[in-house]
Amino acid sequence: MTASSSPGTSALDAEELRKEFDDLTAVDGVSFSIEQGEFFTLVGPSGCGKTTLLRMLSGLEEPTSGTVRIDGADTTRLPAERRPTSMVFQDLALFPHKDVLGNVCFGLKMQGIARSEREERGREMLELLGLGGYADNAIEELSGGERQRVALGRSLLTEPDLLLLDEPLASLDVKLRREMQLELRRIHDDLGSTFLYVTHDQQVALTASDRIGVMNDGNLVQVGTPQEVYEEPATPFVAEFIGETNLWAGDCEDGVVATDEGLEIAAGRGDTTTDGRVHVSVRPERIDIAADPVEADNAFEGTVADRIYEGDDITYQVAVNDTDLQVEQPAKESRGLFEPGDSVGVGFDRDNAYVVTGR
Amino acid sequence: MSTDTALGAAYRRLDGLSTEVKGALVALPPIAYLTLFFVVPLFSILNYSVRVQRELQITGEFTLAHYAEVLTSGTFQGALFYSVRVALVTTALALIVGTPVGYYLATEVGDRLRNVLLFLVIAPLWINFFVRAYAIIQIGGARGFLNGTLLAVGLVDEPIQWFVYSQPSVIFGLTTLWLPLMVLPIYALLRQMDTAWLEAARDLGAGPLRVHREVTLPAALPGIILGSLFVFLLSLGNQAVPRILGGAKRTTYSETILLQLESGGLNWPVASAASGVMMAFVIVVLLGVFSVFDMEELF
């Protein structure tokens, strides 16, 4: 896995990768690096170019321009079968004509490893994935989660320097997806291999990754740890795509943003020294709500416009001046609920308001 | 009583019947049809094949002499060998030509072009074979286009005779005749193949040829078997093509059977026994194929 790679080199270096289809630019000059043993997630809405980017890294798509380096070696023009990467496909692409063991051992068979050895290693992999008893089963006899693991095992058994995962959990139901996501992380940590995971599900990105790259419209907008990306969004798009947020455009002067809707928000984070057009982002869970006016750097009075009960949390839409504030509160019995129409006070300290200077 | 209530009463009576009885009622017409026009003639042929014939009359006497005659006759052996060889070569040719066509249609072309090409594959089935056979003769004959070109270019000094009225021209005719039956099942199977399987195989280290061996071939195999069965069996029994394109010699097995009835002999028992031998041969081929491949996977 990572044993063959020299220390100090990145597992992956992408430089100015571009892909144009006819009159569409799918990937518009993307550069980033992944460290050895990292769990890196590319996240973005569908159509943002993340799958095309992944396919260029795997060799299934040839870049229009740019360079791909894996463990320091230029692989830009290397065909897929000769790259030290392996891909877990979105719809898994398991071979229906082969049984579970035949699928898992396929890569080793292509490497010319003798049947007895590859089957032994295949069985070990199935054991590791909790599929010990399924070696001789047909693929169609497996459940969605089990197929998922077969696809993962098939790729992992080739010991790729870089494992590429193209939204392989998308077809699973929410509960199973959460489980598999933790399991992916466990397998990653056990094997110490490098994972590049692509998803449109920002929740997966936040919980499983060491670092996240946020893509939009063919561009890599921001790269950082989940916390960095959540707390310090580089652009309005990132602020809105990663998690929920209240985002206002406005003019910033002396650390106070006068929003276009007429709110004055004292902001304590981000580039508060900027003067001029900015956005300000306040996460719903950082805003307090009470029957009486709230004591905070930014305090407003408003009316509950709507209430969304989510079990663990309650989200209020509070109308203040010409805008709505989204306020999220943990649901506690003692706290009581506000009804639509109630007059409430809302507020948050300046450190919860982040100035987004990017466009 | 009006017709309406009579009909209603009939429906009500039908409704009261059990599913089995209803099923039997539906199955009855085709069963009757097959019995009358297939099973009865089949058994009468098999019956003829073991009866002694005297003065053009089939008697009740039992004999296996006709089978012995067919099996030991050099003429029949040679004809069977000829027919099987022609059918085998035709099948092989149809496979070589048809598999890439099926693959191409299923995976490489866009939807619009695919419809056009599929139409072109199927269209020959609508054109009477005699028309096509005479076209082949026109093209391949001594004064035909092919020989004309070869002569004009100077590649040959005199027309090549074996382009028509020969074993190669029979094989060529049979191949063009049955090619759609090879292409279509292969196409249908490969249509269901997910191209992501090919990408996954490449990603896991399979080169271009290996991908086809590991993924395309297994995916197409039922279609290949089915298509080969169609082409082989239909070529084996085909009579029109050898008759038009095979020249004056009547060398196929079915022609040899016909000769038993034509050359003044009206030898029904021997013709029937020869038919029985062919039937047994076909059944053995089918059993052989189905013992290796799962029937359910084929259909």
Plain-language structure description:
The complex is a heterodimer of chains A (359) and B (299). In chain A, the strands form four sheets. In chain A, strands 6-7-8-3-9-10 form a six-stranded mixed beta sheet, sandwiched between helices. Chain A is an alpha+beta fold and 359 residues long. Chain A contains nine helices and 21 strands. Chain A has two domains: 12-231, P-loop containing nucleotide triphosphate hydrolases (Rossmann fold, 3-Layer(aba) Sandwich), CATH 3.40.50; 246-356, OB fold (Dihydrolipoamide Acetyltransferase, E2P) (Beta Barrel), CATH 2.40.50. Chain A has helices spanning 50-58, 100-104, 106-110, 115-128, 144-156, 174-191, 202-208, 226-231, 236-241, and strands at residues 12-21, 24-34, 39-43, 65-70, 73-74, 85-88, 162-166, 195-199, 211-216, 219-224, 246-253, 256-259, 264-266, 269-270, 276-282, 288-290, 298-309, 313-320, 323-330, 343-348, 353-356. Chain B has 14 helices and two strands. Chain B has a two-stranded antiparallel sheet with strand order 1-2. Chain A binds chain B through residues 58-60, 79-82, 85-87, 89, 91, 93-98, 106-107, 110-111, 154-155, 158, and chain B through 194, 196-197, 199-207, 210, 214-215, 218-219.
In brief:
Chain A is α+β, with helices and mostly antiparallel strands and 359 residues long.
Key phrases:
heterodimer; A: 359 residues; alpha+beta; Rossmann fold; OB fold (Dihydrolipoamide Acetyltransferase, E2P); six-stranded mixed sheet; 23% helix; elongated; disordered N terminus; B: 299 residues; mainly alpha; two-stranded antiparallel sheet; 14 helices; 76% helix; 3% strand
